[in-house]
Design a protein that fits this description.
two-stranded antiparallel sheet, Hypothetical protein af1432, alpha+beta, 2 domains, OB fold (Dihydrolipoamide Acetyltransferase, E2P)
Amino acid sequence: MAAGGRAGQFGGRVIIMRGMPDDTRRTISQLRQDCRTGPLSARVRGQVEELTRKDSANGKPYWEVKLRDASDVMTLRAWTDTAAFDSCEELDRGACVEIEGEFLINGSFGLDGRRWRMKPLRAEDAAGLFAGSEEEAAAAERDLSHVRKFCEGINDPRLRALCLLFLDEHGDRFRRAAAARVNHHAHRGGLLRHTAQMMRSADALCGVYQDLHRDLLLAGVLFHDTGKLWEMCPAEMGFEIPRELRGELLGHISIGVELVNALWRKMPLEEWKSIEPASEDVRLHLLHLVASHHGELQFGSPVEPKTPEAMALHFVDNIDARLEMFAMAYARQPEIAPGIHERVRTLNTSPVRPLKRTPETPG
């Protein structure tokens, strides 16, 4: 083996990879951003989400590899005259790999790789991949801590107990679920980030509109998308957002209503029978928030918002989703003119780079 090289193995075949310093490793999102200024030699780790054998227009075979990590997804092509093609011949879908090569933004194709090689990750490295980088793991811990503190601070003992019961019973699945497949927070851990952002926004909104029922709104934020734990939740060791029969047949709103009712039945309601408002009214208002959070019948809600808290939840949800879409557009959409990005269908606009904030002046 050449000095500084490393060996990976696929099906008994050893692949020699030239060495690169650790600081060349990037997430897919970082790679996409850094390649805006030109080609870049780097390493990236991810899970093979799709692996497809195809033929070009002139009949030349190639492999198309869709690689996903916690931040983003990219597609690479391995042609017959490359070492990567041989690696793909023995590669399994779902494998965790490290890819090393030259990366660039290739016109309409987007992020692309040239002269790339691939090796499988060791089990401990794969586990670290799903845990995320130190920065990503710390952000997830902060979000989960904020969600729990908001729940612990709910005054109504029924809503507080319900929220904490959910976190205790379904916390692991909640941490890894996605909030969507494509449009926003469409990645492992996306639902936790979306929920934490919404809770912080809802709490701030209650400080301005003090007639809002803060306890109910915070509980509604927590539960509004919990059906996605069974509609779009990656496996414990996976980034792919699979389709599940329950999610396909019922959808996350129906599942969320079912979940609230199932947890509610576990509550010691007899202990709270003298509390006003009545427990049944609290349950119904919370269910209404879950059922109406899409805002309109045409967008999947079985009922439209009929209370201030339901309307606030709908808009807080929409604000966080749309601001995330802008952030994704700035990171992924090519510029069609200086400061103007390619049109985003879900935003129905071509995002323009925001104005830089004026630095704070001392004193």
